[in-house]
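Example for reference:
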Amino acid sequence: MSGIDDLLAEANDRWSRAMNNARDVEDLGMGEAVKTYYLRYFPAGALVLVAAGTVLGTIVFRGDGSSWSLNLAFGLLFAMAGALVGGLVYIAKKVSPAALTYRSDVLLPLENLERKHVTRQIAGKAPIEREHLSVARAGAVQQRKSLARQLVLAPAYVFLFTAQATNWAGQEKPLAWIMLMLVAVWLISIVLLVRDFRRAGRFLVSTSED
């Protein structure tokens, strides 16, 4: 029995450290921060940056209208740079302050299978363990913060691949099609990020009274 007791003691110690890490971890409005970015800042910024970049491309490349694809590609690259820089600023100013998180991974003290079980609870694929609920909630906050950062930066890559596809449009080489496939992959990735972000949010809401 001593071996089993030792294993239980070790497990209790791991969970105790994880619960200590989870203390004061809280979502202070990351959902609203991401929503505001996509409904307000991103659409307006994308429109202005693509238009300004396209006009700038016309001036730089002295286009006469026949090089529309090159000018538009330049505009999309301009928007990519703006989305990347603006996204990083938005993360620092709005996303990061919208969550109180532990300085490192909350789940670090746990073993791999224990971490996976917590992740499954957050995803709604495993029963919630009330005894360790604070750890699961902190893990959900930590997950949402990571996903929020990815969601804010993801459009920059869509602009990048779209710019390449536009630049190579009409060429015999299949490079444009490859870039369009990458655009599709990134758009699907964004949808999956949104799904996971909202799922973690629903977990926090459903367990807020526990």
